[in-house]
From TrEMBL:
Membrane-spanning parts: none
Location of the Cupin type-2 domain: 22-69
Lineage of the organism: Bacteria, Thermotogati, Deinococcota, Deinococci, Thermales
Protein name: Cupin 2 conserved barrel domain protein
Annotated organism of origin: Marinithermus hydrothermalis (strain DSM 14884 / JCM 11576 / T1)
Pfam family, one: Cupin_2
Hemerythrin-like domain sequence ranges: 93-193
Amino acid sequence: MRKLKPSGLLWQGEAGKIVRKRLEPHARIPPHDHRGAEVFVLLAEGRLVLEQGGARLELGAGEAAHLTGEAPVALTAGPEGAAFWVVLAGREVRRLRAEHRALLELARKLPDPEVLVAFKDALAAHSRYEEATVFRGLDAATRELMEQEHALIDRLLERIEQRPNHPEARAWVEQLVTVLEGHFRDEERAAYP
């Protein structure tokens, strides 16, 4: 048993996470999304206005709302402020793992030049998603380590792309797959400890 913080991250796991927030009177959280998650807002104290996709919903103490994580949502506290919980029910972890599996499957088919183009496109899309989700909550040391892994992945890809017929190309692919597997494990642990 332990006492929880009055605000901040209360719990995070594969199923999602729970965050407790407190806003001062009239404070606003600008539009943001929670891609891949179902979002539940449970208001404990005060008043809170949620705005998403042109719709506006006002909550009073004891009320709750469900919204999609795909569209940006803005939150504004009422005149007495607001204390609330946000529950993010995770489809994110399933999405992240599915992306990891697909990327690893493509990587194993390298150095085929056609596969390389598809792999680089998929990796770029994954990097954008990673930056918007996984990297958001990382401490500086973990973020630096993951960025170093990105640099190693980029160097290996460049080597494979420049010399796909080199006798060592297959070994470079195997090294890339090994680095990706470790990086993806680190990502999943960082995002869903």
